[in-house]
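Regression test attached.
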Amino acid sequence: MQLTRSADYAVRVVIHLAVLPPGSRATRETLAGLAEVPPEFLGKVLQVLTKAGLIISHRGSQGGFELALPPASLTMLDVVTAVEGPIRLNLCLATGEPCKRSWWCGAHEVWKAAQQAMTQVLQDATIEELAKQSIAKLEAGRLSQIDGGDAAWN
Amino acid sequence: MQLTRSADYAVRVVIHLAVLPPGSRATRETLAGLAEVPPEFLGKVLQVLTKAGLIISHRGSQGGFELALPPASLTMLDVVTAVEGPIRLNLCLATGEPCKRSWWCGAHEVWKAAQQAMTQVLQDATIEELAKQSIAKLEAGRLSQIDGGDAAWN
């Protein structure tokens, strides 16, 4: 069981857009480099995020991508579900209805609790917080370079 | 992101084996019926569980399957990882080493925490506890039938 590469890429792209000053835009090429997403995947990821209403695509010479929402109101769970759809850890949770085997099987409640525990962590992680961490880390790396150190870039 | 059908089936099979009196065995046909696992999948699931050392396969006229370990020492996580391998929610957790993007990306720690929260729930769920629930539910269903009720079977 693993998230798709697209979900992984989408989270990195959204964090990078949140690092930008409000109102600024990033081109596809910039995002591919910054978020370390292979260009052949990035187009699809940006398309999905745009369609889900998480980012806005601007055309033209001043075009590029920007977040559609304040990063404080976006969570990792929003990004993951935009790409993968609702998280359903096991098949018996897929319908949202009580499992037809609940008359003998107690596993349903455990799957449900495990899914809830996981999604809660993703929901608690706002993109704003992750962007703040990135800014601090990038700044620390920059200072480390100025100081002649290179530990942060290893 | 979803567990495979095999993991879902494996959990049901193991719960049913744990419901049996210690030392008794269930045939493949019995398990297919009780655990509601399609026969075309069951062979593979039983093979994987046997290879992982969770169940024992006995041949011959008195043959069948039984748990290799006391159900109190088996958890849902054991069964899931026997079938799916170690749970790695995101690619960046796959190696077990620090993510090479940790110098700018805070998502790694969130993925890790989400995975930990989920696996903890699965680890806390012993097969013994789930089997006890099944026995109680099956008993309640039987009594409900004797009383002329049918609520438990709906």
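Expected vs. actual: identical. Residues 19 and 131 of chain A are 5 Å apart (CA to CA).
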